[in-house]
Amino acid sequence: MMAPDAFPDEPTGPFEPPPRTFEDGRGRTLALRRYGETLDDVAAERRALVAMYDDFDPADRAQGIPPSNGPAVRTWLDGLLVDAAIHVLAWDEDAVAGHAILVPDRTGAYELAIFVHQDYQGAGVGTRLIRALLGAGAEAGVERVWLTVERWNRPAIALYKGVGFETTEAASFDLEMALRLAPVATSPPSEDP
Fold first, then answer.
1. Which of 42, 85, 124, 133 is the most exposed place for a label (fewest CB within 10 A)?
2. pTM above 0.85, yes or no
């Protein structure tokens, strides 16, 4: 958890919120959607999310997450799928390809986590997913976002820097990074002729 004064002064963005579709670097058409907002059956959506994590390569775990066994995955997701958190999923038809989360902390900032299934890594899915999550966060009024990343995870660090995160602290094993989101522009009310 970061101190409120540790965030950059200048906001970054704007980011386009979901829903939307895109073609990844391997020619697959994926959809970006908020968790629980577009499917009629949230239980089916949760099952698809659990299936992604059940098939997640343990070698791609970072900082001990996601858990590597079924019951632990379900318990972990139960803790994340709370009303105050913001989730965006990348869908390849009916399969989840990636999951990004903003979880509120006690200071009013949000911690970011992102997981992209190994079959979709290196194809631009993570970049699109994190940008959509930041757009959803800005739309929900989130201003401050932070994360920690293992300092040897160069692809993740490049992704975070590419969307505007700045390093705020460098501990022995982890980097702490943060950004301030640009507020969502609102259109002035239109005048009737």
1. 42
2. yes
